[in-house]
Design a protein that fits this description.
The protein is mainly alpha-helical. Helices cover 66% and strands 1% of the residues.
Amino acid sequence: MPLELLVEWTIKLLIGFVILMTTVAYLSLFERRMLGFMQMRQGPNRVGPFGLLQPVADGLKFIFKEDITPLAADKFLYVMAPALSLVPALMTFVLIPIGGEMKIPFIDRPIALHVTSVNVGVLAILAMTGMGVYGIVMAGYASNNKYSLMGGLRSSAQLVSYELAMSMSIVGVLLQAGSLDLVKIVANQGGWGGMQWHVFWFQPLGFIIFLISMVAETNRAPFDLPEAESELVAGFHTEYSSMKFAMFFIAEYANMVTASAMATVLFLGGWQGPGVAQLPLLGPFYFVAKMLFFLFLYIWLRASLPRLRYDQLMDFGWKFLLPLALINIVISATVAVVLL
């Protein structure tokens, strides 16, 4: 491997990690402030100007909290579970392109705004995001707590139910793009002046299915049954404290960012938009703006909708979303044969 390429990958990884962790930290503040606004209250605004240092205060609080391990817990699995949830959540962003190629001063070749690109990028991300549930199930089992165990079992059943519909909702996009490479999927949406997005191009139904499924996959309201404070105390992380709890917290928000980025890449054109062909610097701004739309939608749903009952959750996944996903595949295949 050329040294120059290794240095480039290392710098991209470091920059991506810093940006992702900063986004996760301030996403929690953004959520709390937006929920406050929607509920006609202030939200956190005391630590630093406009409350901007609240994530720092929260981080310090987690670090200095007492780290408790229940006596009856399976200690090895109990410690491994948060890491197994966090690591896959952070790994996924390696494959997500936030922009095209850009010319940077003092470098004689264009630099791609992604760490790496593989020809099975979609499958790799689905595989990595699916790994996170093992950490949740492991936490529920290892805690030796009935509420934690129930939260872990709910999470595994929910993942199986909605992962299938989400994966099938992507098939139409793959038929139109003709590739599993995320960079090529975005490039396929560059027509119509950067507005030939899949959501407008025969995939509105697939987009809606993916949108619902990604909220359920990330265990967010109204699909937050694995945590369900009113029923299960805090679900799978009831017995966790200090940095172990923080790792679950970070993993959830990192998964939200990844899901939003995937929805942007697959259905909203990624970095494509008006004027990107003439000014490539616009690409990352378009990408971030689209991703923020989905993150805001997560918060809006949490403030607006009540939690589903568990039987309603399962019925909705198997009896409604899955048939719709199958119908979308038939429609997409027909369109691909006739028009592409």
